[in-house]
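Thread: sanity check for a docking pose with 2-oxoglutaric acid

Original post by kr_44:
Hi all, I'm comparing my docking run against an independent structure prediction. Below are the sequence and the ligand SMILES. Could someone generate the full complex and paste the structure tokens? I mainly care about where the ligand ends up relative to the chain.
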Amino acid sequence: MELLNSSDRRFWDENGYVVVPNAVPLGNLISVLDAIAEFTGKDLADEKSWYQEPMIHGGMVNMNHNQALWDNRQNPKIHQAFSEIWGDEKLWVTYDRTNMNPPVCEHWNHQGMIHWDLDMSIRPMELCVQGVLYLTDTNENQGGFQCVPKSHHLLMNWLKNTDQRPTVESVIGKMKPVSIPGKAGDLLIWHSGLLHGNGHNTSDRPRYAQYIGMQPEWTVRTAAGVIAANEQTRQSRIRSWQNSPCQRAVADAIGVPEGIVEQWLRQTHEKMDIKVVVDTVIKPPKNGLAKVIIQGKQQDLSIVEQIDKNIFRLDRSQVQKITVPYQNYFNEKAAENIRQVPIPHFTPQLEKKDLDKLPDLLVENQIYGVEEITDLISSEFGLDNHLSPAKLTQLGRRLVGIDAWS
Ligand SMILES: O=C(O)CCC(=O)C(=O)O
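Reply from moderator J.T.:
Ran it for you. Here is the predicted complex with 2-oxoglutaric acid included:
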């Protein structure tokens, strides 16, 4: 039986979103809440704990591969909902994260936000969809999903008439976002052309959600929309699922919740510079600017340092602007950050003497990724990771890309 009837379809076409009620059983929702508590190290029943680190803008919880998340992704009803939107059952799932947006207070002042996740300079804009599963009943004032209904139509019209990048105001004028309340277990799917975000939580409870997205197999959802994927993408999807226990292995080794490890390593990564190797230098750096040829294309680079004749160090902000292959580069700020190994919250698996050695080893080896740290901990300290990735059903294997759909 179809999940979306003709009035749901009309609603979707008109408004740019649709809700599928009771998408997963209650037990699955509780498992994700437990997983959020374990990942963040928070006691969800304790108000003070809501505001302890890790805290990320918008209430994002960067956890991607817990079994509870996978059980929802590979739930047949969730898959069916996305299949009906795409008109195709052969889909791959995105490894989206979760959200915990606590009430505003002196420690947390999330005002709410709206945005597009798409790069607005890219035309034409093809269908791209995102989804959110409500983990608890969520009232209008609870900081949940909000959007400007119908704004995807306004955006499409705007894009037809100009090459410029739209601002929020230029598309919606004085229209305001509307909060979409929902029941635990509701799956809301939205068109990525819809201005969307989450709200200001003035209630007395946090808002909890899991993001889930699916798009046709052999494609990937990016800021450029849903674009074609190749065998390399499929392999990296499989590796990402397979290697996901590494974050947990590092967390157990140093004795902290996974979310603290994620925060520590993400902040290190954000502080790193990048290194590019160019084919030819046309104009050597002057006042921080150089003209070079990379892969046959002339580019202007804003330079931090010339490392070698054809090797340059650039600020990480350049990643958005350049279209060249690069390597990460460990500068002093990143080294300083990675040296600050989080203080154990519970008994670490590593002995004190090994924990003391860890920062220098990370800096010496220029290591900041969980997979490399897991290998290092195993080779240097003999601590082996015996954790396994999330268990997948037959549907789950197809949604990852391990098994072919046909
Ligand atoms: O928290 C929400 O419901 C919206 C999330 C969002 O804005 C996004 O995933 O891009």
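The chain is about 35% helix and 20% strand. Hope that helps with the comparison, let us know if your pose agrees.
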